[in-house]
């Protein structure tokens, strides 16, 4: 083995005493566990400006600082002055959005400033730090950026180490299987098929190298856009250091200023994009299993849903629908006439979603393999042999999804499935997973959209590019219809193409707890449309665990029950009473609240807000909130606290400041404190923020079952002016991109003598229903007069629960309820 020698030209000028030990766990193939010799930036001695880009150098290495927006600054390091191509799968277009910025220089530092952020480059040691407009330092290098030559592959291991304050907390990184607050922990990103993963197992399925730091009530984000195996240490090795590094590629990161966590997430979405509006049916309940077959079984499941009157929008076909697990084929024994079956399911309101894996069976009589082989679309090893591995179909080769031509071909393969009526595609095993070896060897070559690389570079984006190919293909074939896709693996930006599930979890209470955290974490890491396998993939839940999981699932952005093939039946009725009725009640609740969920998704799509919001996101200044992980907000108006223990009769939860209504009892509760709430099996703690206007649809067995004749508006009195959104559109086309939608804003404000509700509307869509049914909760006075746009409403009632009920035309502008 070759010894890694120091380059005398760039002897470290600023090595901190114990830095040699700093990254001793890095798995370096060249020097094994010997101390790693790194090279550090020297003194920053000059600066060159090219519009919004600033180049600093120590004579050899170069650092680029790019002003992206007022809040976002990108930093890149080129160890010997040569930057890599400007290319990223995560950030498709780096657009400069800020015109006001300036460079300052004094004897100690260079400073690039926007209206919001300053990026300081200290001359003596090249330390980079960021401060806000009040010159409060939010992030600061503890060591200058450094690197180590990667002798065996070429390129560099790249490192960045920042200081970590005593009460600094860290959130994000996607689906990590651990507590919400990442402080004191270390992680690796290397997409991994992690069947039955355990608490703290790392890495698992996805790579989202983006974290949010909160310290002294100021949040900032770091997005380390590097697709190689990457590592994050949040004060684990050294309590006062936060580090991130990668086994190759460029040290390229974005500093994203808050000051609120919500701003950080919004701005992260500005870089990586938001999720398009999913088809509305995708918000319904989905039933999955490995596998429902033959056709008679699928039909029986569908029939039971309708007989049991448990709403359901989608049934999934797992790998057994295929002929010998060959993608894009049907097993004709089990499914003799797929088109007919899919059509009949569709007539009964069920969408069919099918699984697709990346492994293509090596079989010269199989058209997909033949085409891929002829066109040379399969991945090859460094010496040109094909990358082969065993997955479900046996011996397989794998398309190189990082090649745009391959993606286009793959997208076109869905033609037949779409013609058969399939509405959605489930992208699995795309870490990529290979039996025995785990994944591809490092030397496999990838086209990488013309920026060539080995599997070390492409591994973490392989799954994302597969689902991208699927999504773009479906979009082409389905024309103006919104495709539905779901993926297991992904990289930052994957949300532009798909929803995500958390992989092969286990039917235990511990996993229920973990899933609850994972979904919050995914939400604030830029993956809005996410869900867990309700009930747990492997193992057997009892009725209680399954029901508690359905309850969480009701408030998961994506709701799907799934189970492994060797488990007992796992449908909402499988556990008998009282479970069936409670499961029905919650799934119905999901359909009732669907317009709220849909509107919240619109807020994500349009404004970049996360769907699920941990409590820390509401009150980041309260340090105790940094460690709350059970309760969360769904959008701005609902606070949910699932029950995560067996036999629990009541539980504690924290309501953030403000007034709340208990959803089940309408009781008003003051927030800003912990409360104890009863948790009988048929409820979970659910609170509505005062001032909310919560739209509600009638219960349906599937989305679009009935024409909506009136929408219920549940209005919760508040004496502080409060706004709510209500979004509607056709639900399955992209017409919203041409402004064919209706975004209504409700502004309410109340006093001891009156309550005013105002409505304004944007967009070109007009829903068919004409009336709103109002339910007004918590009025502090007995109403005697209701005016809708200066016309009196004479018919109103106050029911036995003191809820004021009346109807209006949907077009009202102002309603005044008065004593
Ligand atoms: C993987 C998936 C699981 C699927 C199974 C069979 O384990 O994670 O959801 O059911 O493969 O396709």
UniProtKB/TrEMBL annotation:
**Coiled-coil residue windows:** none
Domain Glycosyl hydrolase family 31 C-terminal positions: 608-694
* Keywords from the UniProt entry: Glycosidase, Hydrolase
Q: Which GO terms describe its biological process?
A: carbohydrate metabolic process
Q: Which residues form the DUF5110 domain?
A: 711-778
Highest taxon in the source lineage: Bacteria
Glycoside hydrolase family 31 TIM barrel domain ranges (all copies): 276-599
Occurrences of domain Glycoside hydrolase family 31 N-terminal (ranges): 63-233
Asked if Hydrolase is a keyword of the record, the answer is yes
Q: Which InterPro entries does the record match to this protein?
A: DUF5110, Gal_mutarotase_sf_dom, GH, Glyco_hydro_31_AS, Glyco_hydro_31_C, Glyco_hydro_31_N_dom, Glyco_hydro_31_TIM, Glyco_hydro_b
State the CDD domains in the record: GH31_glucosidase_II_MalA, GH31_N
State a single Pfam family of this protein. Answer: Gal_mutarotas_2
GO MF term set: carbohydrate binding; hydrolase activity, hydrolyzing O-glycosyl compounds
User: Is Hydrolase given among the entry's keywords?
Assistant: yes
State the family it belongs to.
Belongs to the glycosyl hydrolase 31 family.
The identity of this protein, by name, is: Alpha-glucosidase
Native organism: Mucilaginibacter auburnensis
């Amino acid at each position: 083995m070759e010894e890694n020698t120091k380059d005398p030209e760039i002897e470290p000028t600023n090595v901190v005493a114990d830095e040699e030990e700093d990254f001793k766990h890095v798995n370096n193939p060249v020097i094994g566990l010997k101390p790693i010799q790194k090279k550090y930036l020297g003194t920053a001695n000059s600066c060159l400006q090219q519009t919004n880009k600033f180049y600093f150098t120590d004579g050899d290495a170069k650092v680029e600082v790019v002003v992206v927006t007022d809040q976002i600054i990108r930093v890149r390091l080129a160890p010997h002055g040569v930057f890599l191509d400007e290319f990223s799968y995560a950030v498709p277009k780096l657009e400069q959005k800020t015109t006001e910025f300036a460079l300052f220089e004094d004897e100690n530092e260079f400073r690039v400033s926007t209206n919001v952020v300053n990026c300081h480059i200290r001359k003596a040691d090249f330390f980079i730090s960021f401060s806000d407009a009040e010159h409060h330092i939010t992030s600061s290098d503890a060591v200058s950026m450094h690197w180590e030559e990667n002798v065996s592959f070429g390129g560099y291991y790249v490192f960045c180490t920042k200081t970590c304050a005593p009460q600094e907390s860290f959130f994000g990184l996607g689906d990590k299987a651990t507590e919400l607050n990442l402080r004191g922990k270390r992680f690796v990103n290397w997409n991994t098929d992690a069947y039955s993963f355990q608490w703290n197992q790392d890495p698992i399925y996805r790579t989202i190298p983006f974290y949010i730091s909160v310290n002294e009530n100021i949040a900032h984000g770091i997005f380390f856009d590097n697709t190689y195996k990457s590592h994050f240490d949040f004060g684990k090795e050294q309590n006062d250091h936060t580090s991130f590094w990668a086994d190759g590629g460029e040290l390229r990161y974005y500093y994203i200023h808050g000051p609120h966590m919500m701003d950080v997430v919004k701005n992260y979405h500005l870089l990586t994009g938001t999720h398009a509006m999913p088809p509305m049916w995708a918000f319904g309940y989905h039933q999955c299993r490995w596998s429902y077959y033959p056709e008679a079984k699928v039909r029986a499941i569908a029939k039971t849903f309708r007989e049991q009157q448990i709403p359901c929008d989608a049934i999934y076909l797992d790998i057994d629908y295929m002929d010998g697990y060959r993608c894009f084929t049907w097993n004709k024994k089990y499914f003799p006439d797929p088109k007919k079956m899919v059509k009949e399911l569709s007539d009964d309101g069920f969408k069919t979603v099918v699984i697709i894996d990346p492994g293509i069976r090596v079989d010269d009589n199989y058209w997909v393999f033949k085409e891929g082989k002829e066109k040379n679309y399969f991945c090859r090893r460094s010496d040109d042999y094909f990358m082969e591995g065993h997955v479900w179909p046996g011996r397989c080769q794998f398309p190189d999804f990082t090649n745009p031509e391959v993606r286009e071909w793959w997208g076109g393969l869905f033609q037949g499935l779409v013609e058969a009526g399939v509405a959605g595609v489930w992208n699995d095993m795309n870490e990529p997973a290979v039996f025995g070896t785990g994944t591809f060897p490092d030397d496999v070559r990838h086209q990488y959209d013309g920026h060539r690389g080995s599997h070390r570079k492409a591994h973490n984006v392989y799954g994302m590019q597969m689902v991208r190919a699927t999504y773009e293909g479906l979009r082409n074939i389905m024309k103006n219809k919104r495709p539905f896709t779901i993926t297991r693996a992904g990289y930052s930006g994957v949300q532009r193409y798909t929803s995500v599930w958390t992989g092969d979890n286990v039917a235990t209470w511990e996993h229920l707890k973990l899933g609850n955290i994972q979904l919050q974490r995914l939400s604030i890491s830029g993956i809005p449309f996410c869900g867990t396998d309700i009930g747990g993939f492997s193992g057997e839940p009892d009725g209680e665990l399954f029901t508690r999981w359905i309850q969480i699932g009701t408030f998961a952005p994506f709701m799907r029950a799934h189970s492994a093939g060797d488990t007992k039946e796992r449908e909402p009725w499988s556990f008998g009473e009282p479970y069936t009725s409670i499961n029905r009640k919650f799934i119905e609740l999901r359909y009732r609240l669907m317009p709220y969920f849909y509107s919240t998704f619109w807020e994500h799509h349009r404004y970049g807000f996360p769907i699920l919001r941990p409590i820390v996101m509401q009150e980041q200044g309260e340090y105790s909130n940094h460690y709350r992980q059970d309760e969360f907000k769904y959008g701005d108006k609902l606070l949910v606290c699932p029950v995560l223990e067996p036999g629990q009769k009541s539980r504690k939860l924290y309501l953030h400041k403000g007034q709340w209504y208990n959803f089940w009892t309408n009781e008003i509760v003051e927030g800003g404190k912990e409360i104890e709430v009863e948790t009988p099996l048929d409820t979970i703690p659910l609170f509505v923020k005062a001032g909310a206007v919560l739209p509600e649809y009638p219960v349906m067995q599937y989305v679009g079952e009935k024409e909506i004749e009136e929408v219920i508006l549940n209005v919760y009195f508040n004496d502080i002016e409060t706004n709510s959104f209500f979004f509607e559109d056709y639900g399955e086309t992209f017409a919203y991109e041409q402004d064919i939608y209706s975004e209504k804003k409700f502004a309410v404000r109340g006093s001891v003598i009156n309550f005013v509700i105002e409505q304004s509307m944007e967009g070109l869509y007009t829903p068919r229903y004409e009336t709103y049914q109002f339910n007004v909760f918590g009025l502090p006075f007995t109403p005697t007069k209701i005016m809708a746009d200066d016309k009196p409403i004479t018919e109103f009632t106050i029911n036995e629960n003191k809820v004021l009920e009346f109807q209006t035309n949907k077009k009202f502008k102002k309603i005044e309820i008065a004593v």
